[in-house]
Amino acid sequence: MTGDVSGRLAVVSGAGRGIGRHLALGLARAGMDVALLGRRPAGLADTARECARFGVRTRTCPVDVRQPAAVRAVVDEVADRLGGIDLVVNNAGIADHDEKPPWEVDPDRWWDVLETNLRGSFNLCRAVLPAMIEAGAGRIVNINSNVATKRDIRYSAYGTSKAALLALSDTLAGPLRPHGVSIFDISPGMVLTDMSARMTACLERNQWVSADLVVGAVIAVARGELDPLSGRYLHVGVDDLAELAARARAGLPDGIRTLRLVPHGVDDPLA
Ligand SMILES: NC(=O)c1ccc[n+]([C@@H]2O[C@H](COP(=O)([O-])OP(=O)(O)OC[C@H]3O[C@@H](n4cnc5c(N)ncnc54)[C@H](OP(=O)(O)O)[C@@H]3O)[C@@H](O)[C@H]2O)c1
Q1: Does residue 119 line the site of ligand 1, with CB under 6 A?
Q2: From ligand 1's centre to the CA of 20, what distance in Å?
Q3: Whose CA is nearest to atom 46 of ligand 1?
Q4: What range(s) does the Ketoreductase domain occupy (predicted)?
Q5: Closest atom, ligand 1, to C-alpha of 13
Q6: 26: Cβ below 6 Å to ligand 1?
Q7: What is residue 229's predicted lDDT score, i.e. its pLDDT?
Q8: Which of 158, 166, 196, 244 is catalytic?
Q9: CA-proximal residue: ligand 1, atom 26 (nearest)
Q10: The dihedral of CA 23, 24, 30, 32: what is its sign?
């Protein structure tokens, strides 16, 4: 699938509000049918109503992405009702907005961030990948964050979860390539949402990135324009994605924009 995406099917998690809602609306505007996942039915129903204005099919799927069996059931139901899934956006996520240092934090709160951001994304990948592999096509976007690569002690759970997500995509990208399936990590920049508005790191912030940038990037993924960048971490606030994709088509060095150990020299045995 490249080019026109109308009539194709996207699954967006966390679609009831925030960036997920922007993504669902943008994909619907581009003509994609949308399956909307999230915990709260009211938000999903509202997003579905707005998406339906673009004449696409919608389905609301209340689900907690931390629950593998429930995610599996929802994916099966979506495939039964709407057909094969072309694009998945793992957007559902949480941050502990006033996270304590790891030596003080409530361990269950810390783990809940991992369960949602990492396990939730894994659960959706696990549920959709067999059919994508069988179809020989499919694309997955993990919504990531700068905190994955820039250490911030205020967000140890969030940063760990997003770094692990980078590792997951990196692990999957190579083996999925021969099956025609691509996977990307895309950072949206700082977008004003319920999550960012409450984070202590953002309390003084008065400049925000428009969600249109991440919407445009995910549509470019859906159109296949970024396939040469599968497995790489992209940041919509700073990257020229078309230029990066052109460079990748000409041959991007192995490991660029992936999570790697920095060796202390060429003779480092771990290099
Ligand atoms: N905002 C930013 O500046 C920013 C920057 C970098 C990365 N991100 C990433 O962007 C993504 C979206 O963030 P946001 O800012 O839009 O946050 P948000 O406004 O707080 O929305 C979070 C979404 O995730 C859903 N969600 C949370 N836990 C879930 C669970 N267990 N099961 C199903 N859905 C769940 C929520 O659904 P319910 O409403 O149903 O609970 C909600 O729709 C996250 O992955 C975040 O890490 C955001």
Answers
A1: no
A2: 7
A3: 93
A4: 8-189
A5: 34
A6: no
A7: 96
A8: 158
A9: 92
A10: positive
The answer, as to whether pTM is greater than 0.85, is: yes
Point out the ligand 1 atom lying closest to the alpha carbon of residue 15: 43
φ, ψ at 180 (rounded to 5°): 75, 20
Q: Which atom of ligand 1 is nearest to the CA of 20?
A: 16
Cα-to-centroid distance, 44 and ligand 1 (Å) = 13
Q: Which domains does the chain have, with CATH numbers?
A: 9-249 (3.40.50.720)
Block means of pLDDT (10 residues each) for the chain, length 271 residues? 88 98 98 98 98 98 98 98 98 90 93 98 98 98 96 92 98 97 97 92 89 98 97 95 94 90 93 85
Our answer to whether residue 233 is catalytic in this structure is no
What per-residue confidence (pLDDT) applies to 57?
Answer: 98
In testing the pocket of ligand 1, which one of 39, 208, 238 has its CB within 8 Å of the most ligand atoms? 39
Using the Cα atoms of residue 55, residue 143, residue 245 and residue 125 in order, give the sign of their dihedral.
negative
Does the beta carbon of 192 sit less than 6 angstroms from any atom of ligand 1?
Answer: no
Q: What is the pLDDT of residue 173?
A: 97
Structure confidence at residue 2 (pLDDT): 63
Largest interatomic CA distance in the chain: 60
Q: Name the DSSP letter for residue 250.
A: T
DSSP 17-86: SHHHHHHHHHHHHTT-EEEEEES-HHHHHHHHHHHHTTT--EEEEE--TT-HHHHHHHHHHHHHHH----
Helix (H, G, I), strand (E, B) or coil at 113: helix
In whole angstroms, give the CA distance from residue 139 to residue 136: 11
Residues 6+ apart with CB under 8 A from 38: 13, 14, 15, 16, 17, 20, 44, 61, 62, 63, 92
